[in-house]
Structure formats: C-alpha cells, structure tokens
Amino acid sequence: MKDKFAYIACFLLVVAFYAEASDVPYIAFSSNRSGNYDIYMMDINGKNLQQLTDHLGDETYPTFSPDGQWMAYGSSRDGNDDIYVMNLKTKVSHRLTNHPARDLNPAWSPDGRWIAFTSERAGTFDIYKIQPSGANLQQLTQGDEMNNAPAWSPDSQFIAFRAFRDPPGIYIMDADGGNPSRLKNQPEPGWTPAWSPDGKRIAFGVVLGGNHDIYTLSVDGNDLRRITRNIVGDGLPAWHPDGRRIAFMSWWARNSDIYHIDVNGVIDNRRRLTRHPEIDMGPTWMPTGPLPVAPTTETQTTLWGRLKQSVHD
C-alpha cells in the first residue's frame, strides 16, 4: 500500500513538472479559419489545436518572451493595428503601443528586454523597439524606403530585417540601429529573415528561377543552401530551438498551411501540420516553459508507464 501511494505521489509530481517545463515543442500561428485572423497553437505533430485569441479584429504574428510567460502579437481589435501583450496563464492582454499609424510584426528579443516591431508612424514602415513595459520607444531605421520584418540574433546584439532600399534585400544592423549592412551573396532580394539558434545562419524566403523557396545563408554570406522547392510559394520561416528544423507557411497543396522541414536532410522533406481550407500563416515556435495547456491523457499514460518502470528498476 505504501508503494502504491508513493507511485501516485510521484505521478502527480511528474505530471505537474511536465505541465510547467515540458520539452515538447509547440507552434503558434495565425489563421482566419474563424472568419478573421486569430492566433492558435498546436504541437509539433499538428495535434492538440488550441485557440489563444478570439476577437473580431485580426490578430497575427505571435512572438514569445524567452521564459514562455508572455505573447506579443499584432491586433486590429480597436480599429487600428497595434501591438498587444498577453499573459499566457491568464489569457489577459494589454495594449503595448497606441498610435494612429500601423504597428505590426513584433519580435521579442532573446534576452527578454525588448520587443522590435514595424511601424508606419514616421510616414513609411520602419523598425522600432520598445521595452515590454511600454517604456523607452526607439526608432531604429530611417529614410524614405520601407523596412520591415525584424528578427533578433540569439545574443540580442543584432537585428536582421527586410529593406526596400537600393539594393533591396536582407540587412543586418546593431540592436540600436547602427551599422546596417546588406547580407552578402543573397541570390535575389530576400524576405522575412529568421536567425538560427546558434547565430550562424539566416533563413529567408526568396523568388529565384520562378520558384518561391526558403534558403539559408551564413551570416558572413557563405554557404548558401536551398531548403525547399516550390513553384507556388514557401515563406515566413521560423527555426526550431534545436536548429535542425524550420517551420514555415506554404501553398504547396494550393492552400496556405503550416509545414516543418529538416534543414540538414534531403531537400524538401517537408511535413504538413495543418489542413484547413482557410489561410494558416506566420508560424513561430513557443519556448519551453509554463505551457497554457494541461498534459493530455496520452501524456499521462506515457508518464505513468515511465514512472512505474523507473520505480521497479
């Protein structure tokens, strides 16, 4: 009897631990499957779909604090595009930016100190950053050309972005906006950059030879690699934290869905994660940490089996 109670106590402890510190990755994305764009999450197999936002306005491009406690996203719920931040435990959101111009595409810095975003408040789209508290707004790019899609380096020291200046393409600048330079040896002007977790490579979408594909390139401009082959369209890449996979949106099946792919394997070993007639886009990996979900029955069964084995061993 004592052993039975010990099993139960250990089981409850392990379940609680997995609920708070699961190493099972989740993917968040935007979808208009409910009639307008909302943010959803699913596991790496495309299962356990959950809706994180539910509002009549469009809510897009989620990004997460490194501790997994908060989600920033773009929303038009008040009739204007602004950045909001949600507490993932309570599902309560607050408005981070409040400007009549459009604020879009937030990106949370890996050190947790800043949220970069795109804003039209200076007359054209530029890159800004702001602290999660709403303090210390800074404009990082200037000029008549549009700049958008900020992506942080893993050490939070640099920001990659898409610039429409001459020549257009992916640029990298210091986190304070200084020293912008174009990523060398882009095969064509790239779109929507994403920095690899080890800081060595940048993934981006590009139109080359009639195909809309995802490539990766070393930060120093060497070792160009083609990741997908799709004449219709692949884009919006997001690196898995282990650096071995990229999630992305694709029109591969004549509909916009979320896929992931092994970046070190055979070209185009893609796996489809969503299958819905409406548009799914803008995937991002949720950091491990407190999850807004409880363990599934399958997870509990697996844990119980492992627990009994470990106890008997």
Total number of helices: 2
Task: Summarize the helix and strand pattern as letters.
Answer: HEEEEEEEEEEEEEEEEEEEEEEEEH
Alpha-carbon distance between the termini?
18 Å
User: Share of helix among residues?
Assistant: 10-25%
| CATH fold annotation | Neuraminidase
Number of discrete domains? 1
Percent strand equals 35-45%
How would you describe what is shown here?
- By secondary structure, the protein is mainly β.
- Helices cover 12% and strands 40% of the residues.
- A hairpin with a 5-residue loop joins strand 16 and strand 17 (201-208).
- Helix 1 crosses helix 2.
- The longest helix has 20 residues, at 2-21.
- The chain is globular and about 45 Å long.
- The relative contact order is 0.15.
- The model is unreliable at 1-22 and 290-313 (pLDDT under 50).
